[in-house]
Amino acid sequence: MNEAKPLKPVTLPESIRRKNDNVIEFDPEKWLEERKGKMAPAQDFIDKRMKQCASCDVAHPACLVDQANQTAGLRIEILGQGHEIRNCEKWTTYRKALASALPQMFIGATFDSYRPADGEEFTQRAALSAARRFVGLSTQPPPLPGLLLSGNPGSGKTHLACAVLNWENEHGGRGYFANVPRLLSDLRRTFGRGKEGSSEFDRIMERLETAPLLILDDFGRHNPTNFGSDQLYLIVDDRWTKKRRTVVTSNFGPEELLKKFKDDDDGEAIVSRLLGLCEFVPVVGPDGRSA
User: Which end of the chain is more exposed for a tag (fewer CB within 10 A), N or C?
Assistant: First the structure.
């Protein structure tokens, strides 16, 4: 599984000291002393970290690692006569996206950045409306606790699903992204590897079953196997019985999924539960990857 790696702690110069878990004070006088003594000055420390956060369109004076929890970014702000480093919400959101296992290219995906095509033959605008309704950006509530975004490759299904997860992350929610073929490969790899493998297998399954919001990407692209079908059934059945919010993307519609898994003992039960959990939303449009 693609999980965020823990950030390395940062050693702060003496001119930057922690005030509490959320605020670090900056001492200009010590900063000057460091520069005169040619010690490792705070300015060098700051200069090396001047960058634009991957999820932010504002270049902050500095982006540092919060040693307290290693999840939030810190930035320098000029407050009156002094300086402080406070939590940077953009960096916190970025780290939250990584913890959700979002693919790097979709960390910045939003509803506004989705570009539906015009034309009566396309359904992308209706799909965008359904995704916005799903997170509460509509006067109408979603009819079901899930979405099944189904359509041709490149129509933006994964973009919409990740936009939903990004919106949840930015508004206090939590979720998890899993590409189904890769997920089943990871589960197969951990299964039967003794105590360590069993522990990792259980951890992955628990995360998938209990995530407040779960994205299952590329459903139906996997090769049906008894092992894979057993795990998918457990995941989908658990989320269906507990009505947990789930967004599924697939190149196949309900009838196509049934045909694809007609020889699979669990196939019909899995598709039936998906349709009981998720609103079916066609996402038909031009292939954005080849544009």
Answer: C
